[in-house]
Amino acid sequence: MGRGKVELKRIENKINRQVTFAKRRNGLLKKAYELSVLCDAEVGLIIFSSSGKLYEFCSSSSMSKTIERYQRCSYEAYKMNQSSSDRQQSMYQEYLELKARVEMLQKSQRYFLGEDLGQLGTKDLEQLECQLDTSLKQIRSTKTRYQLDQLSDLQQKERTLLEVNKSLNSKLEQYNAALHSSWQSGEHSIPNRFQPPQIGQFFEPLQCNDTLQIGYNYVASDNSAASTQGANGILPGWMHSL
């Protein structure tokens, strides 16, 4: 059978207590030394006996440096824990403030929409009316400024289009003037030998006989004969036999 669990309690016998303390102390100091050598750890061990006698072991050159390092690490850990706690508290406080602000804004929105006005007094209603008037003035001012900006843009576009139209009209007038000048110079350059002939120089006017009738023999007068003779001077010879 194995050994049972030994209850740890204070040794009442003083001699036995001192012997046990010496044995355990030496074993603890040995373990601290081995730990510092084998694991390259910085070990600081402080032991006070029941009589107040000090026993210590330090792997570094000075116990005070080890204690200072311990205090620094402990303070930083405490500071981090405290900072985390403070940060959580600050975030919770900020959450409460934001929640209250949201509720207030929702209530103001209902008032602006004309809801839940029965619970407001005369002073609150007057204040709400002033806020609505101020908001309405700001809206109208913003609308007017926006319309003026649009009007200014349209006027600028109008001026640009007028300038473009003026430039196009000027170019069109220059083109028409150049075309008219080229036509005039072309008419003056045509020689006289290319002028179209007058029809009256080649053809004699036809003489109409008002007395010409079927079965009527017309006797030409002297003037007619002279005219015929004058015409025969122009007609070819083969037409004289007709």
In brief:
This protein is 63% helix and 4% strand.
Could you list some keywords that capture this structure?
4 helices, 4% strand, transcription regulation, TF_Kbox
Set down the secondary structure blueprint.
Elements: H1 14-38, E1 44-48, E2 54-58, H2 63-112, H3 122-188, H4 222-232
Antiparallel strand pairs: 1-2
GO molecular function: DNA-binding transcription factor activity; protein dimerization activity; RNA polymerase II transcription regulatory region sequence-specific DNA binding
Keywords: DNA-binding, Nucleus, Transcription, Transcription regulation
Subcellular location: Nucleus
Describe this structure in words.
GO terms for molecular function: DNA-binding transcription factor activity; protein dimerization activity; RNA polymerase II transcription regulatory region sequence-specific DNA binding. Keywords: DNA-binding, Nucleus, Transcription, Transcription regulation. One of its GO terms (cellular component) is nucleus. Residues 88-178 form the K-box domain. Helices cover 63% and strands 4% of the residues. Strand 1 (44-48) and strand 2 form a beta hairpin. The longest helix has 67 residues, at 122-188. It has helices at 14-38, 63-112, 122-188, 222-232, and strands at 44-48, 54-58. The protein is mainly α. The relative contact order is 0.02. It starts with 13 loop residues before the first helix and ends in a 10-residue tail after the last helix.
